[in-house]
Amino acid sequence: MNDTTPAAYLHAHQFAALAPGPRLIVTGAVHGNETCGTQAIRRTLDDIQNGRLEIERGLLTLLPVTNPYAYAKKARQGDRNLNRNLRPGNSAGDYEDRVADVLCPWLAAHDVLLDLHSFHTGGQPFAMLGPRNNAGQLEPFSHEGEEERLVAHLGARCVVEGWMQAYQRGVERRRRLRPDAPVELLDAAYGVGTAEYMRSRGGYGVTLECGQHDDPQAPEVAYHAIRQTLALLGMARIPLQPPAAQFTVYHLEDVVDMDHSGDTLLRPWASFDPVAKGEPIGRRHDGTLVCAERDGYVVFPNPHALPGNEWFYFAVRSSRTLDV
């Protein structure tokens, strides 16, 4: 077996307290080159196994490496992006589809998800927040308050909402401009990842972007978030640190794809860099400028995106506040 041979299994660690309580699952390396969560989860495992941490209520499942193939490759994905179009039932598909057949039932068996990620370029940690309570078609939800309180205690002062709405707009554009794109890129459920799937099964989940991939502080951010989550849920005797005094909440308005390998960003953008209406953000391979349609912010810029995949996101300030 060589280092990039896809693993034939997922390895989770589970701790079931004798007293009832919440069911929490913590995931790392959904993207294989995002290892801060893996490091933090393994540190938490060491704490438990060496008696420094005891799970006293509920069920804790720790999954250090959610995508073993991508992790072995030290790449974002194995065959495809696991955190898009996540659903079970396609075991004859690619590697990530087979992972989904195992992962999705695990998510559905829990109440709360903490999914630990990192990002390509510079910027401060931020949390991804789900929708307000609603009974709509796109992402019905009923745990707004619980999810906001979790986000507020994770340590990040920046919060991003509007993920599924941005992807809905992105998919509509693809259908209009690139009807010959791979079918999965045209699927209305393309934006469904771990947290979105968790919400669709009646739970709630937070994706925490802990910092740039190689930032030595990112594993510390992830480790702090795990402990804060355990404290907030009352699963372990850990002092709960208070939330930040204030947060900045951004609403994702759009996702812009890289169309060609020759597309380039015009500067080394970092998440939450401000842009003015009409300001160029990138240049297509044919010289066409991609400009901001209104005043806002660049989020998740990825100069190394694959053609047909997300190049950057555009956000505006949200009026939403957190229930802490």
From TrEMBL:
Superkingdom assignment: Bacteria
Alphabetized GO MF terms: hydrolase activity, acting on ester bonds; metal ion binding
Keyword vocabulary terms for this entry: Hydrolase, Metal-binding, Zinc
GO cellular component, one term: cytosol
Taxonomic lineage of the native organism: Bacteria, Pseudomonadati, Pseudomonadota, Betaproteobacteria, Burkholderiales
Naturally occurring in which organism (per UniProt): Candidimonas nitroreducens
Succinylglutamate desuccinylase/Aspartoacylase catalytic domain span: 20-122
InterPro entries: AspA/AstE_fam (IPR050178), AstE_AspA_cat (IPR055438)
Keyword Zinc in annotation: yes
PANTHER family: ASPARTOACYLASE, SUCCINYLGLUTAMATE DESUCCINYLASE
Record keyword Transcription present: no
Protein name: Succinylglutamate desuccinylase
Cofactor(s) it depends on: Zn(2+)
Membrane-spanning residues: none
Coiled coil: none
